Amino acid sequence: MKTPLKAKINIGLLISFFIIAAAFFAIEIPFQKRQFNSSQKRIELVLRTMVARDLAPLANEIFDNSIYSIRARIKKMLEVDGMCGISIFDAKGELIVSEGEIPSILKITQPEMKAIRDNIQIKRVKSNGSDKLRYIQSIKIVNEELGFIKICYSLEKLTREQSYSFLIFSSMLIFIFFVLMIALNLILSRLITKPLTYLRDAMGQIGSKEMASQIKVTGKDEMGDIANTFNRMSKELAQSYRELEQRNTELVQKEKEVDKVRLYLKNIIDSMPSILAGVDVKGLITQWNKKAEEITGVLAKDAERVFFKDVLPWAQVLPLEYIEEAISRRVIKQKTKAAVIIENEKHYIDIIVYPLKGFGSDFEEAMLRIDDVTEHVRMEEMMVQSEKMLSVGGLAAGMAHEINNPLAGILQNTAVIKNRLQKDLIPNIEAVESLGIDMDIIRSYGKIRDIPNLLMSVETAGKRAATIVTDMLDFSRMSEGTLSSYDISQLLDETINLATSTDNEFKRIIVERVYDKNIPPTLCQKNRIQQVFFNILQNGAHAMADNTDPPPKLFLRVKKSNGYVRIEIEDNGAGMSKEQSKRIFEPFYTTKPVGQGTGLGLSVSYFIITDNHRGTLNVESIPGKGTKFIIQIPIA
Fold first, then answer.
1. Where are the domains of the chain?
2. Measured between alpha carbons, how far is 331 from 85 in angstroms, rounded to an integer?
3. Using alpha carbons only, what angle is made at residue 196 by residues 191 and 199, rounded to the nearest 5 degrees?
4. Is domain 5-164 in CATH 3.30.450.20, yes or no?
5. β-pair partners for 626
6. Cα–Cα distance, 577 to 625 (Å, whole number)
7. How does the average pLDDT of the chain come out, rounded?
8. Distances from the Cα of 148 to the Cα of 140, 165, 306, 514, 548, angstroms
9. CA atoms within a 13 Å half-sphere pointing along the CA-CB vector of 210
10. What is the 3-state secondary structure (H, E, C) of 269-323?
11. What does the alpha-carbon distance between residue 574 and residue 90 come to, in Å, rounded to a whole number?
12. Residues 6+ away with beta carbon under 8 Å from 48
């Protein structure tokens, strides 16, 4: 709260008055006390003189026991101004006569009697709210104590005179103070307060942009000099203000243009699909775009002046020396397809360090551009892998055709040998007769040497090889996307046979089948369904690679369920966590070690089932107990 100057001056005067009053009182109070004590001494002298005058007659009257004379005498003594009462006691302290208005303090006690036998006791006491002077003296004749006299004298008049004198002194002091305050206020108001008020009002007008305000000069003293100085200052300020307003208008216009450019640049930076971060030569963040906020979850205000690797895990492969070199040499530095681990996942990133130019030689900052190219790299890997698979598929198809020719000869010749050794054909009979040998002898020889069983083994192996070749050709052929009716159980078995023939690890897996008998043929694309089965079976084999007790085992179930064929492929491998199960169908996500999987098998399988066949593909897994894939395909 603002305190006016006048009030401050009055407060100062009031404080000065109190200090002066305190000093006067410090002098007056001891003076009044001395005056009072001097008056009291005179009263004591009067009492001593009066008692000394009447002491001998009073002793005679006590000795004669003349009560009337005693009473008359003390009444005469009470006529003295200020006397309150007188009591006369005998030598034993018994009251003889008492006169006056306050008899209660005129009693005498044994201690008082003992104390005044040889002395006069004069003491100031309080009685009925007023000061009294108590006088006690013994009455003796020839050193024989006849009694005591006790006098009460009122000091009220003396006290009243002292108070009146103090009141007059205080009133004069207060009167002098008020006269002084009024006089000083009038002088201050005219000489100081009014000129200062004019100055304040004029300065207030300057604050409200009335720069040319002038003060009327009323005197030739210091206040007049202040007014003249202020008038010159206000004129100069008015001129300066006009110039400043003009410059300010220009600056505001330029600032708007700068803000527009700054906003434009910020929108460009924020709209970039890459992480853009400005860093200084020490690696501290100076700029931070929206993409960086979205990917890292760190706001620009929190990232500012923080070391770039603390908020950019994507930049962990970028040494600070790269930034220092780019800034010092003014060259662009970059790393392409750098592998980093983010949240336990492998990512590939491109990092480019652009030194900022054109801001002076002492400007040492650079801009980092970071792009996550993981999908691009994996897509390239997938394309390379696809090319390899196409090459392998073509090679397998060519090899299968080449194998088919000698395999057909083996099977055909094995059938011919069986016919010539076991059947009674005319050419066979004619041949043995020309040699003089019976056909039964040749058959007996064959049984003894186990030739029929050997031929049967050759034929069985040949047929199995022919079946494998046929399955490989069917699996490697490109599908034309047409749907046909197939026995799902048979397709699953063919895929099992193919997996067993191509993967030695798969041969040690126990396969338990539970197929319903009433499963109708189902519309599907054979090669693609087999591809799904093959991907799931391979994953199961990988999950059970370390199983010894219990041994690795696959459970295959096929049944009909509400218009769908339900295929369950369950293993007793390591299983997956809930987090892994949720992401198992994401592209490029894999639980296999780096280099052993692309993370595309199950995502492609999910696409084949859900998009190409309008079915469902789900997974159920318990860590340590195994995983079950559930495929449902519409029958029609």
1. 5-164, 272-372, 374-478, 480-636
2. 122
3. 135
4. yes
5. 622
6. 11
7. 79
8. 9, 37, 105, 143, 134
9. 9
10. HHHCCCEEEEEECCCEEEEECHHHHHHHCCCHHHHCCCEHHHHCHHHCCCCHHHH
11. 129
12. 120
The pLDDT of residue 515 is above 90 = yes
| Residue 379 Cα distances to 384, 536, 559, 581, angstroms | 8, 21, 37, 23
pLDDT at 478 over 50: no
Kindly state the tokens that stand for 561.
């369920």
What are the C-alpha distances in Å from 457 to residues 185, 448, 450, 461, 529?
A: 138, 16, 11, 6, 33
Please report, as a single letter, which amino acid is at residue 218.
T
For 124-169, the pLDDT digits (tens) are 888 777 788 888 888 887 778 888 888 888 888 888 877 887 788 7
Three-state SS for 480-536 is CCCCEEECHHHHHHHHHHHHHHHCHHHHHCEEEEEECCCCCCEEECHHHHHHHHHHH
Which of 460-468's residues contact partners 24+ apart within 8 Å by CB, and which partners?
462/407, 462/410, 462/411, 462/414, 463/411, 465/403, 465/407, 466/404, 466/407, 466/408, 466/411, 467/497, 468/497, 468/498, 468/501
The overall pTM is greater than 0.85: no
Residue 490 CA, chain-centre distance (Å), reads 62
The total of other beta-carbon atoms located within 10 Å of residue 16's CB is 13
Q: 521 CB contacts (<8 Å, ≥6 apart)? A: 485, 486, 487
- Residue 516's φ and ψ, nearest 5 degrees, are -70, 150
pLDDT at residue 19 in the model:
82
Report the C-alpha gap between 501 and 541 in whole angstroms.
Answer: 14
Q: For the residues 354-377, what does the mean pLDDT come to?
A: 75
Over range 175-200, report the average pLDDT. 73
Tokens for 490, please give them: 């048979």
CATH superfamily of 480-636: Histidine kinase-like ATPase, C-terminal domain (3.30.565.10)
pLDDT band, very low/low/confident/very high, at 224 (cuts 50, 70, 90): low
* Average of per-residue pLDDT across 235-252: 80
128 CB contacts (<8 Å, ≥6 apart)? Answer: 102
Alpha carbon distance 9, 22 (integer Å): 20
More confident position, 374 or 190: 374
pLDDT tens column, 3-47: 666 677 777 777 877 787 777 777 777 777 787 788 888 888 888
Radius of gyration of the chain, Cα coordinates, nearest whole angstrom: 65
CATH number of 272-372: 3.30.450.20
Mean pLDDT of 398-405: 71
In order of 158, 193, 395, 433, 612, the CA distances from 474 in angstroms are 142, 113, 14, 49, 19
Could you check whether 5-164 and 272-372 share the same CATH topology? yes
Calculate the dihedral angle through the C-alpha atoms of 262, 263, 269, 271, rounding to the nearest 10 degrees: -170
Cα separation, 133 vs 290, whole angstroms: 100
Joined tokens for residue 624: 């340590």
Distance in angstroms (rounded) separating the CA atoms of residues 525 and 486: 9
Specify burial of residue 314 (Cβ count, 10 A radius: 0-12, 13-18, 19+).
buried
Retrieve residue 58's tokens.
Answer: 């009073």
- Length of the chain measured in residues: 636
Distance from C-alpha of 421 to C-alpha of 334, rounded to nearest angstrom: 78
